[in-house]
User: Which sequence fits this backbone?
C-alpha cells in the first residue's frame, strides 16, 4: 500500500547496531544475547557488520542518520579500536547529521576495562551505563557481575574521558525491595549527576531464568505502584523531567535515538537479531536479521539474502504508531500521525472516540493528543483500544 509520503516528508532515520555477547547473561534478560566465552569471533563479526552496512546504506538512499545506537549484549566488551573501526565504516557509507547522537551501552564492570577515552575518541558521544541498583544485595539477586563501587568508578572514568551525556539504567520492583530502598537507588543515581535516567520496572519476561523460576520477594502490584508514584515525585524534585514512561532527562537531554522509535521514525538495523523499519513512497517496511550469531555470520559470508522486507499493513501502522507515541508525555499531533503513517487523519479520529470518552486521552489546547493521568495508570488498556480490528 502506498504511503503518499514524499522524500521531504519521510521521518527521521536512525541506525541500530547489535553486538550480541556478554560476559555473563543475566537471569532476567530476554534480549538476543549470548555468553561470550574466550572464542567470540569479534573481528569476524565486525567484518560481517561492515558487509551488512553496505546493504543498509542502499536502504538509506542518501537520507542522513540522526543517531546511532550500539546495543547488546554488552558492546563495551569490544575494544575502542574495534568500535572505532565500526563507526568509521558507518561514516564512510552514510550521511551523518552534524549533531548526530552516538550511544554505546556499557556495563560498569567492563566499561573501565575498555577505556572510555578510547570510546570517546572513536566517536561515541553518549554512554548508557547499566547500573540497575546501588544495593549490593539487589545486584547479587539480579545476577549482575559489577559492584556498587564499579558504578561510581565507571561514571567517574566516563566524565574524565569527556563524556557530557551519560545515561544510567536503574530498575525497581526488585526481589525484596522496599519503597525506601527504591528511593535510595534513585537518590544515589542522581548523586552521580547523569544527564539521563532510564528507570523501569523489573519484568519477568518469557524465556528467561526468572520467568521459569521467579525470585522470592517480588513486590506485588500495589507496592510497585507506590514505588512508581513516589519515585516520579523524587525524580521531579531532583530536576529530572519525565518525557516517556521510563525515561527522565535533565536540561532536555532526551535520547534522540529512543525518541525516534517512540515517534514512529525509521531505523536501519545491522547485527544478529536486529530489527529495522524503513519508509518510502511505496510503503512502510519491517525486517529482521538472523538472531543466531553463527547463522548471521554464515549468511553474510555466503552472500545470502540477509533479511526480507515485510510491508506494514494500514491497520498495523495505526496500532504501531499508537503503541509507541502513547508512551510519550508530550503526546502527538494529527499532522505527525499522517506524516509518519501515510494514513488519513480520519482513520485516527475514529479510533480515538472510545478512549477519549473513557477519559484516557484528550486533545490539549495546543492541538496535541495527550494521555491523561488515568490513561497513564491504565496505559496497556489504552494501547489495546488501537489493536487492529
Assistant:
Amino acid at each position: 500500500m502506498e504511503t503518499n509520503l514524499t522524500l521531504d516528508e519521510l521521518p527521521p532515520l536512525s541506525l541500530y547496531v547489535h553486538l550480541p555477547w556478554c560476559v555473563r547473561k543475566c537471569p532476567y534478560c530476554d534480549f538476543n544475547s549470548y555468553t561470550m566465552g574466550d572464542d567470540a569471533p569479534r573481528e569476524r563479526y565486525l567484518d560481517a557488520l561492515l558487509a551488512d552496512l553496505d546493504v543498509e546504506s542502499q536502504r538509506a538512499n542518501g537520507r542522513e542518520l540522526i543517531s546511532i545506537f550500539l546495543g547488546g549484549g554488552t558492546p563495551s566488551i569490544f575494544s575502542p579500536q574495534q568500535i572505532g573501526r565500526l563507526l568509521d565504516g558507518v561514516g564512510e557509507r552514510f550521511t551523518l547529521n552534524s549533531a548526530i547522537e552516538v550511544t554505546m551501552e556499557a556495563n560498569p564492570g567492563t566499561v573501565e576495562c575498555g577505556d572510555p577515552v578510547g570510546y570517546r575518541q572513536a566517536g561515541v558521544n553518549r554512554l548508557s551505563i547499566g547500573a540497575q541498583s546501588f544495593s549490593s544485595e539487589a545486584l547479587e539477586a539480579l545476577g549482575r557481575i559489577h559492584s556498587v563501587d564499579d558504578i561510581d568508578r565507571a561514571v567517574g572514568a566516563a566524565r574524565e574521558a569527556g563524556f557530557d551525556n551519560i545515561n544510567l539504567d536503574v530498575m525497581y520492583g526488585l526481589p525484596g525491595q522496599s519503597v525506601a530502598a527504591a528511593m535510595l537507588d534513585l537518590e544515589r543515581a542522581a548523586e552521580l549527576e547523569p544527564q539521563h535516567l532510564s528507570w523501569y520496572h523489573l519484568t519477568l519476561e518469557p524465556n528467561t531464568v526468572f520467568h521459569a523460576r521467579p525470585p522470592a520477594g517480588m513486590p506485588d502490584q500495589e507496592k510497585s505502584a507506590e514505588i512508581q508514584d513516589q519515585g516520579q515525585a523524587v525524580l521531579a524534585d531532583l530536576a529530572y523531567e519525565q518525557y516517556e514512561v521510563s525515561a527522565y532527562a535533565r536540561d532536555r537531554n532526551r535520547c534522540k535515538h529512543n525518541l525516534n522509535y517512540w515517534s514512529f521514525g525509521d531505523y536501519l538495523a545491522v547485527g544478529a537479531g536486529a530489527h529495522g523499519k524503513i519508509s518510502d513512497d511505496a510503503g512502510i517496511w519491517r525486517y529482521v536479521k538472523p538472531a543466531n550469531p553463527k547463522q548471521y555470520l554464515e549468511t553474510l559470508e555466503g552472500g545470502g539474502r540477509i533479511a526480507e522486507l515485510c510491508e506494514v499493513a494500514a491497520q498495523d501502522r495505526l496500532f504501531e504508531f499508537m503503541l509507541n507515541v502513547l508512551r510519550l508525555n508530550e503526546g502527538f499531533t494529527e499532522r505527525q500521525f499522517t506524516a509518519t503513517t501515510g494514513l488519513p487523519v480520519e482513520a485516527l479520529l475514529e479510533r480515538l472516540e472510545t478512549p477519549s470518552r473513557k477519559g484516557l486521552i484528550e486533545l490539549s489546547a495546543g492541538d496535541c493528543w495527550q494521555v491523561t493521568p488515568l490513561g497513564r495508570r491504565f496505559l496497556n488498556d489504552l494501547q489495546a483500544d488501537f489493536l487492529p480490528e
